[in-house]
Design brief:
alpha/beta; Alpha/beta knot; 7-stranded parallel β-sheet; 34% helix
């Protein structure tokens, strides 16, 4: 085995990426304090062809040096928008046909292991603040809550790690159908 060189990876150009069909999901980031987390989610959204990212509340927005540091250009390829109110954003997504899934540990949550996305359904994954999680009103409004099973002593994962797991899981499951 040999490590592949950049030119051997056959990555899309920024222009080709903008024209390619995306997977049917959006990422909603609510009150994310860390610009590094925001940048990392942009990079994940690029890697797994998300339709767009919706940055809500106090979540930082490009252009910002700290976002650019971890996004490595994905803040220029992934479509994004800002919305002040996450609850109104979720209601609008639902009215537009998206199934809104809060990524949160709640009573009765659906394990990511058991989540079976439907190919024709559009999804919105909501990620909350690093300390407080997903807004309680959004948890109540969501169509369901997804939880990533964890087996160690910690009870949560970093939001950027969580987004990576959720996006990869979603795309892997959709591609198998």
């Amino acid at each position: 085995m040999k490590k592949l060189q950049m030119e051997e990876l056959n990555r899309l150009s920024a222009e080709a990426f903008s024209e390619t069909e995306k997977f049917p999901y959006v990422l909603v980031l609510d009150d994310i304090r860390s610009m590094n987390n925001v940048g990392s989610v942009f990079r994940t959204a690029d890697a797994f062809k998300a339709e767009r990212i919706i940055l809500c509340g106090i979540t930082g927005q490009p252009p910002h040096r700290e976002i650019q540091k971890t996004a490595l250009g994905a803040d220029e390829t992934v479509v994004w928008e800002h919305a002040e109110d996450v609850l109104e954003t979720c209601k609008k997504l639902q009215s537009d046909g998206y199934e809104v899934l809060a990524i949160e540990q709640v009573e009765g949550s659906l394990s990511l292991l058991d989540f079976q996305p439907q190919k024709q359904q559009k999804y919105a994954f909501v990620f909350g603040n690093e300390v407080f999680g997903v807004n309680e009103a959004v948890v109540k409004q969501a169509d369901n809550c997804l939880e990533i099973p964890q087996y160690g002593t910690k009870h949560s994962l970093n939001i950027a790690v969580t987004a990576g797991i959720v996006c990869w899981d979603f795309v892997a499951k959709i591609m198998k159908k």
